[in-house]
Amino acid sequence: MLLIRCPYCEEDRPELEFRNAGEAHIARSANMAAISDDEFEKFFFIRTNPKGVIFERWRHVHGCGRFFNGARDTVTDRFLTVYKAGEPKPDLSTLASSAPAAYANRPPDQLNAKKTAAKRTATKKKGEA
Amino acid sequence: MTEPFRVTGTGRLTPARTARFTFDGKSFSGLQGDTLASALLANGVHLVGRSFKYHRPRGIVSAGAEEPNALVSIERDAARKTPNVRATVQELYDGLAANSQNRWPSLSFDIGAINDIASPFFSAGFYYKTFMWPKAAWKHLYEPKIRAAAGLGVAPDQPDPDHYASRFAHCEVLVLGGGAAGIAAALAAAETGVRVILADEQAEFGGALRFESGARIDGQDGWAWTLASIAKLAAMDNVQLLSRTTAFGYYAQNFVGLTERVTDHLANPGNEQPRERLWQVRAKKVVLATGAIERHMVFADNDRPGVMLAAAARTYLNHHGVAVGRNVGVYTAGDSAYAAAIDLKKAGVSIATIVDLRDNPTGPLVDEARALGIEINHGRAVVKARGKLRVSSIVVQPKNGGAQRTIPVDALITSAGWTPSVHLFSQSRGKVAFDTATRRFLPGVYAQDCMSVGACNGTDGLEMVLDEGYAAGSAAARDAGGRAARGGAKPKADAGEGWTGGMLGSAPGAGAGTTVKAFVDFQNDVTAKDIRQAVQEGMRSIEHVKRFTTNGMATDQGKTSNMHGLAIAAEMLGKEIPEVGLTTFRAPYTPVTFGAIVNHARGPLFDPTRKTAMHGWAAAHGAVFEDVGQWKRAWYFPRAGEDMHAAVNRECMTVRTSAGLFDASTLGKIEVVGPDAAKFMELLYTNPWEKLEPGRCRYGIMLREDGFIYDDGVVGRLAPDRFHVTTTTGGAARVMNMMEDYLQTEFPHLNVWLTSISEQWAVIAVQGPKSRDIIAPLVEGIDISDEAMPHMSVREGKICGVPTRLFRMSFTGDRGFEVNVPADYGQAVWEALWAEGQKHGACAYGTEAMHILRAEKGYIIVGQDTDGTVTPNDAGLDWAVGKKKADFVGIRGLTRPDLVAAGRKQLVGLKTTDPSTVLEEGAQIVANPTQPIPMTMIGHVTSSYWSHNCGRSIAMGLVVDGRSRMGETLFVPMPSGAIEVEICSPVFFDEKGGRLNG
User: Fold this and answer.
1) Is B497 at the interface with chain A, CB within 8 A?
2) Cα–Cα distance for residue pair B108/B102, rounded to 1 Å
3) Any idea which fold B856-997 has?
4) Does the pTM exceed 0.90?
5) Residues B767/B662, Cβ–Cβ less than 8 Å
6) Class of domain B1-154
7) Hey, are the CB atoms on A111 and B433 less than 8 Å from each other?
8) Contact check, Cβ <8 Å, A37/B445
9) Helix B847-856 with B644-657: angle, nearest 10 deg
């Protein structure tokens, strides 16, 4: 279950309180009746479905009830940012990387850089003494 | 002595605290603190089950959650029968009753063992290849037979009488695994004052310290340090200790699922406690200290009861005080089995031999074993285990071939090395990396805020394990906001054990070209030969090998077998292990009961039940209810002697001759308020609203942008800036959501507020010629004459002294009112109306009559007569679409080419030629019933009823070009023959509509 930050409540809340509402930044034409079939197709049917960052709408349906937007990495499920409805699409280059958390990462070649067998044996001997 | 294999002076259990139990009906005695496995072993019982496919006799392999073999059924009572319980996990309690599985007629003589003799026919992929023909036989013959012969325990056949609890928890540091590394991490984190949860799947914390006799920490024995550390943690307010708790799933953003087994170890659980508790923990930091699992040696007949893991034998000795045999053989590819041999020897158990694959093993443990006089056969392999129901001897041979020697044993303990438990790390979406030096997969790239410490991180040696655990615990706590540690001291290992080395894959004698049964996966009966065969038959990816052989697919998920299987496949493919790849680790780590997952959400608590304000009255008056979403709605009100048909006929007739009362409270209701309310309504509904006068109502249709009908309902304008909108019962929430969506995101410039008022107003529909007479005496302040309050109008006033929004509207086609009153007064007003109605011969009617009455008039129900592909024009509702409007939701969709093309299905009435035939709803409609199958279907029946008022059946359907087919005869093909129908207007009753004012 994801933790999602509501930009209106300014709190991280569990996914249970939210409902996804599809891709964001697909504006309804101000002159809807006049748009062409192609424009309608793009507006209603065509979605990006990216592997990577998606801009999508969420509603804090069991909270404040507001719709807002978020940028989420569909590979890691990590939210890069959330912002209020009507605010411009954020510039991805200014956001934190969506790469895995750097918290515990060590290069694989350093994974087993442990003490030598000799030292381990020494420890054991000391205990037996 | 009742327990011949209990070794006095060893173990940590109290001899006086006995517990009696039965296995397959035979009585035994064990000690409290035993597992079922250790208690059986104390009684010399190794044979505990039959294998899945070959029905081979099987014994206890491990001392923990990884157990593949020792699966038993535990029966507390008739309803509490738990199959496939691992005997190595089940704690003993007084009175425990266990039974072996998958055997008939008995464990020691099992007819199904014929499969073992016939095993050449049962090799990998056998099912896919053998039972291909004839096709029908698979379903009726092969599959039922195979399912009966294979398989494990039997599922309980009664509802689970236990209850299960659920708890959400938050902490800064969640430590998974309570061995040395986990305890050190928890101590370090706890000292900073942050909230710490330490969970371990065992009954007691300690992990490998339960068996590592050589461990000394902070000047004391490793076990004493464990007890002292756990006592210290238990005394801290910020620490939650969870023993008997398995972390089974690691989900996004450090969300971890754990199950705590609360009562499975108790003799008399009582009803107060839940059987299990599901913990859903959100942690800022997770420390994975999940340890490592020992692998068995893969050689011929390595599944004989009595052949088990070395560390398991050591646990049974050092923790439970049980010797796994009197004359134990050892087969190893590394050091750790020596420690087991030494502990057993010191406890007085004869060690028949240590067979070590290594050519020239050296080191203090080898020296110590020699000093104790244990024979070491190095550079040799065990090529066969003899004995059927229990291992009786082993055949030893130089690993490159040569003379064989048979050595009698009554147990054989083996170790092929240790596999770090990276399951949870992998579940967290971390990427494992193969460490070529030690030939094991270790945590590589992390995906979440966690760190691995100890054996699961490939850290060998107690001193380093403690260092790493303590460092990780303090770093995690610090990063999660902990204060500087106070009073704590890093635990220091004075002596410890650490195991590297070992081997992967099949041992000599079971290599390529051999046909022996050298088991890789005990639980699914997969041998080394099966895996080679899978490669020979073209499987290249380990994921394919796994599915073809079922290696690692049993309930133990290959905890002991995956690495062996991978190594054998890699060898056959001539590739390195990382090139072949590791199968994906998925939740759950060990099986989780349905009870823990379902938890309280069962029976009446499965889903909320919604009842209207008048529910009690309806129940008291004999209503039969139907479920409509979460609502309980009165379906019909049978009188004495009436069946449903008679009751519904009477209700339909009474409404049209006198009147009926109907509970319409479940309709969705939304108040649209604000200076721009009319503009908003113009955009959300197809109809024009600006010119609707306050006090008047209109039937509104809401579309989606694609032009299809989404919802409908009557809307009353209470004031220039206030609309009372009704929706379908099922559409209430989604219509509100759609309105909010447009208001917040597309039309935020509109000054409008939306409020759900569905539950604020109870609605009593009073319908029929006498409806006005019934409400008249009770209404105050509203002129309800036809002149003052015509059809489709709304007034505010009082009824029975309480506020009302009184609608003059009809969903029956007869004169009707809908009385909205605050929900708290719903039943009182209903009772008053009922009393008035009685004077006029009115009845209460339910949803069935409501459906029929509306169908007689051709009124649609969205979701029944429409299905998300129906436009207003299709439904004959073009009149409700404002032709002069510049915009509304769906305006562009309506002009899409397919929606304006000819040949769309249109809603029409259907009259069966035989008036007594009632069509099936959903039945297909064809033009020519004699055409070959598959027929060309040109429509389907959407609504169909017996209409008492019309004296015949009536139906509606969607038919291609239906409105131009009036009078045409079509057919509804049914199994009993085609039914002839005539296309007609969907209005069957009072076509001119005069009764609305009748």
Assistant:
1) yes
2) 12
3) Gyrase A; domain 2 (3.30.1360)
4) no
5) yes
6) alpha beta
7) yes
8) no
9) 60
